[in-house]
Design goal:
Largest sheet: 5 strands, antiparallel
CATH architecture of the largest domain: 2-Layer Sandwich
Number of strands: 14
Distance between the termini: 50 Å
Radius of gyration: 19 Å
Order of helices and strands: EHEHEEEHHHHHEEHEEEEEEEHHH
CATH topology of the largest domain: Uridine Diphospho-n-acetylenolpyruvylglucosamine Reductase, domain 3
Oligomer: single chain
Structural class: alpha+beta
Low-confidence stretches: none
Number of helices: 11
Number of domains: 3
Mean pLDDT: 93
Strand order of the largest sheet: 4-5-10-6-7
Length: 279
């Protein structure tokens, strides 16, 4: 059970949610936005998070959109990972979501909860980074729509009271060849040693990673070396591995050396899958 009491609010609009959050913050309630709630519940039980009020965004219509609008795919922040899988709208995102936890948990974990969570993996953001998606963010000044690259640096950079309303992706990316692989130490539903998502666009391979470093990322230098097809695949991969943006994780799931080994092999798998490159 959660070892503390808290107030519960369920606003019906983005404006009401932000106003509530800021008011509760000013009252010292340490409010949290709530959609799926799995991370809040888990971390509260471990005394790693505390709040005196939660603001549930599941009742906000914009946060529950899951549809194609013209040439765009729109995913509400309160949509569950299981709903994204079942929709079939964006196969790469569906595959990335499928690798997160088990099915029961995916029926509760939301897109916004995963992308904005404190748990460092945030695998659902990888397809967004690969497709230069845009996000709709609610804040004190209303809604704003910006590129994911403007607001995601290791995690979603939002101001006090802001929250993710929607993720918007161009439909054309849903039809591109992709590769998505999660590697774990033992159990396939364990936290990942790494998750690698790759997308082939205009004959160029894009790559995003989670679990390698302490945050998910897409690195231009990695893609530049991987797409240098004049060089042998082994040279391309080894050069790409030198471009990681931070130290490789070294923890109970796997040493940094083992992660590098797994990453190297997974990059080869991605090249073979997307361009038939031999190792």
């Amino acid at each position: 059970m959660i070892p503390f009491d808290f107030e519960y609010y369920k606003p019906a609009s983005c404006k009401e949610a932000v106003s509530l959050f800021l008011e509760l913050h000013d009252r010292g309630k340490q409010p949290l936005y709530y959609s799926g709630g799995t991370e809040i519940i888990t971390m509260a039980r471990l005394n790693q998070v505390y709040t005196e009020a939660v603001v549930d965004i599941k009742g906000i219509p914009e946060c529950n959109v899951l549809e194609q609008q013209g040439e765009q795919l729109v995913f509400g922040g309160a949509i569950t990972l299981a709903q994204i899988e079942e929709s079939g709208m964006f196969p790469l995102l569906a595959k990335a979501c499928h690798h997160i936890a088990d099915h029961t948990s995916r029926c509760k974990i939301t897109l916004g909860g995963n992308i904005c969570g404190n748990i460092m993996y945030r695998e659902a953001v990888l397809p967004a980074l690969l497709t230069d998606s845009e996000v709709v963010i609610a804040g004190e000044d209303g809604l704003r729509q910006v590129s994911i690259h403007e607001v995601f640096d290791q995690q979603l950079q939002v101001k006090k009271g802001e929250f993710l309303v929607q993720l918007i992706t161009e439909k054309r990316f849903a039809d591109q060849p992709f590769f998505c692989e999660k590697k774990t130490k033992l159990d396939k539903i364990d936290y990942p040693l790494l998750t690698l998502a790759a997308l082939k666009v205009d004959d160029q391979i894009r790559v995003a990673l989670s679990g390698v470093c302490a945050f998910p990322f897409r690195q231009a230098a990695i893609e530049r070396y991987l797409n240098h097809r004049e060089s042998p695949a082994a040279e391309r991969v080894d050069n790409a591995l030198r471009q990681l943006p931070a130290p490789v994780l070294d923890d109970l799931l796997g040493s940094s050396g083992y992660r590098r080994f797994v990453l190297r092999n997974t990059l080869f798998d991605a090249l073979e899958a997307l361009e038939g490159a031999e190792t």
